[in-house]
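Please decode residue identities from the backbone states below.
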């Protein structure tokens, strides 16, 4: 029986470039949920619709790169 290969998951690299101070609680919660603890920190996540929704909310605070 031939094995089915899973397609490789797309990884996204996200960098926090602006502080969430002065923005709403939802924006601060999204930044924290993305895993940021300090400015200019970079995190990597698997691309998903949930992740894209959080990035849409805080697009003015982050830089997104495809890996």
């Amino acid at each position: 029986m031939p094995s089915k290969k899973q397609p490789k998951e797309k990884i996204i690299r996200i960098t926090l470039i602006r502080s969430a101070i002065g923005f709403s609680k939802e924006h601060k919660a999204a930044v924290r949920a993305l895993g940021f603890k300090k400015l200019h920190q970079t995190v990597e996540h698997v691309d998903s619709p949930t992740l894209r929704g959080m990035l849409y909310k805080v697009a003015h605070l982050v830089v997104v790169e495809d890996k």
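Observation: Residues 21-66 form a domain with the Ribosomal Protein L30; Chain: A, fold (CATH 3.30.1390.20).
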